[in-house]
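Re: Re: ligand-bound prediction request (bumping)

Still looking for help on this. To restate: I need the protein modeled with iron/sulfur cluster bound, output as structure tokens. Inputs repeated here so nobody has to scroll up.
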Amino acid sequence: MPASAADCVRGCVRMMRYVSLLVAACLVLLAACQGPADNTQLTIDPDRCIACGKCEEVCPYGAVEVIDGEAVIDPVLCHFCFRCVEVCPEGAIY
Ligand code: SF4
Ligand code: SF4
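Reply:
Sorry for the wait, this slipped through. Here it is.
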């Protein structure tokens, strides 16, 4: 038996409620994944860095470079693989 126009409207309204809930859930998840803005970049402590260059050697993306005796990370190139963090003998990257 074909559905009436009223049934179709009710079905559409119900479906839109579900879609709205799904979109809201996705937005909440996205916000949680992104995290706070100050957690989107690694930091190098200049007082700890001894300019050994190990972070530069190990970075697969060319995102870290020792310049004037101090390691510097390019946040645009960094993929957060944390290899530099693991290899740093001074614990200078976090
Ligand atoms: S590995 Fe650590 S100590 Fe060595 S250059 Fe990089 S940040 Fe500095
Ligand atoms: S976290 Fe990975 S990509 Fe980013 S600077 Fe360190 S080694 Fe390079």
